[in-house]
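Progress against Task 2.4 (sequence-to-structure conversion) is shown through the following example record, which the project officer requested during the mid-term review.
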Amino acid sequence: MTAQRMAADTTASPPTPDGVPLFGNGLAFARNPVDAMERWATLGDIVRLDIPGQEMYLVTGPALIEQILVDDHESFTISPAQRETFSGVEDHAVTTTTGERWERLRRALHPAFTRDAMGRYADRTVETTAACIEAWDDGEQIDLYEEMRRLTVTVLADALLDVDIRGREAVVMAAADALVDRANFRRPGQLLPDWVPTPTDRRFERTVTELDAFVDDIITERRGTDRGKDLCSVLLDAHDAGDLSLAEVRENVVAMLLAGHDSPSVALTHVWRVLDEHPDHRAMLTEEAQTVVGNEQPASELLPGLEHTRHVVAETLRLYPPTLGVMRQATEPVTLGGYDLPAGAQFLLPQWPVHRDDRFWDDPTTFDPTRWERATNRPEYAYFPFSGGPRNCVGMHFAKQELALVVATILATVELAVSVDGPLTFTPSLQLRPEPAIEAIVTRR
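C-alpha cells generated for the chain above:
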C-alpha cells in the first residue's frame, strides 16, 4: 500500500472513492471486496463509502480502530448488518447481543476458557486430530478446505462440547454454508425486500432448523451425563443456576459450532497452501512437529516448543485473515480522525488492508514468519485477526492453540502436496472463504 494518504480535514467529510450511479461503491465491493478495500484504504485512515441507504465508513488506521474497539467502545455497538446476518440463528448468542444480556453471557462463558480448561482442550485437540487424519489414505487426493472444515468442527465439538459428532458434521457445515450464502454480497436476493422469500432464505431456514434440532439433541444428551468444565457443561450449569435460559444455552452452542469451525478451517487451508509455496518453512515446521509432538509430552505442554509453528500461524492470519472485518455502529455522535460523524454511522474495520499496510509492515505482501521473532514498535491494532477490546472473540485463545496443535499433529504424521485450481479469490461474504478448489495429495510418513 504505497499511495500517500490524505490528512483529515475537520471542515470536510472523509474522502469517498469513485462509484457508479445507483450502486455507488457497492458494486465494486460485491465484485471483489479485497481489491476494493485495498484501493480505498489508500485514500485515508477513514474513508466514506457511497452505499445506498447507509452511512458507511471504512476505517484502516490502527489508532482509529483502537478508538472504536477499545478506548471509546461504549459509544459503539454491533452493526445492524451483523444482527441481520445472524437473525434467526444467534439472536441470543454472545456474538450478537448487547448490554446486560451480553455481559451476562460473557460472564457465563468465562469458566470455559480458563487456563486449566485450555490445557484440557489441548489434549482433546491432539487426540481428535490424530483420529481424524487416520482416515486419510496414503496417496489419497482430498478436498483440502472441506477436510479442514470437517476436522475443525469435530475438534471443536469434542473439546468444547465433549461430544463426538464424527459422521454428523454435515449438519453444522450445511448451516454454515447457508449463512455465508445468505450474507453473500453478490446474491440477487440482497436487492429484494426482507419480506420476499428467496431460495437462499428458504435454505437458510431449513438448515438452521436442522442445526437447532441437532444442538437440542446434544444438550439433552449432555444434561443426562456427568458435567465437566467444557463449554457445554458451563452453559448448562449457568442454566441450572438460573443465569441463562435454555434458548441462550442452545444459541451459544450454535454460535460456537458455526464461527468456531469456519474461521479456523479457512486459516488452516491457507497454512497448508503457503507452506506448499515455501518448502523451507515447511521443512522447519515438520522437524519441529516431529521433535515436539513425538516426545510424549502432554499436549498442554507442547505449545512452548512449537514456536515456529505459532509464527507461521500468526503470519498466515496476517496475510489471509479469515473474516471480512469487524463492523460497528455509533450509538452517539463521534469524532474519528478529526471528522465529526453522526449517531447511526456504520464502520467497517477490515483486517486485510491493515495487515498489509507498508507503514507498519516491512515487505507486507511477503510471507515471513520470522518477522514475529523481532521486536517492533508497530501499533497494536495493525494486527487484529480476532477483533479486539471487550467484544473480542471469546474463543480467541482456543483458536490460536487449536491452529498450532492441529498443524503440528498433521505435519508429524503426513505431508500434504497442495494444488489450487486457478487464481486465489474469495467469497464476498462475512467469511473470506477461498473460491477456487484447493486439493492436496496425502503422503503418510
